[in-house]
Specification:
- Helix 3 crosses helix 4.
- This protein has two domains: 216 residues, P-loop containing nucleotide triphosphate hydrolases (Rossmann fold, 3-Layer(aba) Sandwich), CATH 3.40.50; 50 residues.
- The chain starts with a strand and ends in a 7-residue tail after the last helix.
- The longest helix is centred in the middle third of the chain and has 14 residues.
- The strands form three sheets. The chain has a six-stranded mixed beta sheet, sandwiched between helices. Strands 2-1-4-5 form a four-stranded antiparallel beta sheet, with helices on one face.
- The protein is an alpha/beta fold.
- Strand 9 and strand 10 form a beta hairpin.
- This is ABC-2 type transport system ATP-binding protein.
- Belongs to the ABC transporter superfamily.
- It comes from Streptococcus saliviloxodontae.
- One of its GO terms (molecular function) is ATP binding.
- Pfam families: ABC_tran (PF00005).
Length: 288
């Protein structure tokens, strides 16, 4: 069990994380938020990379911020921008990372097992500079698992991947959540919807809502609407409502609108999706 107790972090006058408390158990947790929501600051605190202004991070009843041994033995981390040595062979890179982490027992065997787990066995003797973006991310997952962590933290792991690699990566993350806590920080709603057991909505350094994916979809029942209208009327509606999608149909515009109440006009209620969920919580913010 991983527990956050009243975690705070302020930079000068800005409160990046504001008194967050939460309890994690085995499974995949999605941190969803826009730019500046506090996602990266929070996971950096969990990983011991940033010292909080207040609060505790408790793992198995011990404060991991006070005992770096617990931190090194318990947490695996894949940052958004992970640095590689391009001329290293994949297997040599894992060996190198294992030595840095102080792993001595059966290191070669462990490296080979992890390359097999992430689907890179055939590429173990290839230089990293020849890898695609998805292959590099899978290698990053492998290095984060070298110490067999009970807590795995992933910061925007699928950014820049093509659809096929994103699906492959999501399947891998989902399988890893069976025996450990996986904390996935992202703004890509498709990743959250596909693999998260529980979603945590962060906004301005606060947790504003949590629940299973079905909870959020149920919450938006009768709050997502569509209308087919002329272009001039569509432009007026876009000024007054949060639009999650628009498409042209001949000389008409079809708008998808997220609203707590039915808008004026010939609207029909439609089934919500997670893009609607994102815009419901962050109506005036762009993607992060």
């Amino acid at each position: 069990m991983l527990k956050l107790e009243n975690i705070k972090k302020n930079y000068s006058k800005k409160m990046a994380v504001d008194n967050i408390s939460f309890e994690f158990n085995n499974g995949v947790y999605g941190l969803l938020g826009s730019n500046g929501a506090g996602k990266t600051t929070l996971i950096n605190i969990i990983c011991g990379l940033v010292k909080p202004s207040g609060g505790k991070v408790i793992f198995n009843n011990k404060d991991i911020l006070l005992d770096k041994t617990i931190l090194l033995n318990s947490i695996g981390y894949l940052p958004q921008h992970f640095s590689y040595y391009p001329n290293f062979l994949a297997l040599d890179f894992l060996r190198y990372m294992g030595v840095l982490k102080g792993i001595e027992e059966n290191l070669d065997e462990k490296c080979e097992e992890l390359l097999k787990l992430v689907g890179l066995s055939k590429e173990s003797q290839n230089k990293i500079k020849t890898f695609s973006g998805g292959m590099k991310q899978r290698l990053g997952i492998a290095q984060s698992l070298l110490n067999d962590p009970k807590v795995l933290v992933l910061d925007e792991p699928t950014v820049g991947l093509d659809p096929k690699e994103r699906i492959r990566f999501r399947n891998l993350i989902s399988s890893l959540g069976k025996e450990r806590i996986v904390i996935l920080s992202t703004h890509i709603v498709g990743d959250i919807e596909s693999i998260a057991n529980e979603i945590i909505i962060l906004k301005e350094g606060n947790i504003v809502d949590t629940g299973k994916p079905t909870y959020f979809l149920d919450k938006l029942s009768n709050k997502v609407w569509e209308i087919e209208t002329d272009f001039d009327s569509a432009e007026c509606l876009k000024l007054d409502y949060t639009v999650s999608n628009q498409r042209v149909n001949g000389d008409k515009m079809i708008l998808r609108i997220v609203s707590d109440s039915i808008p004026n006009g010939n609207f029909k209620s439609v089934t919500p999706n997670f893009e609607d969920v994102y815009l419901y919580y962050f109506p005036n913010q762009g993607e992060s």
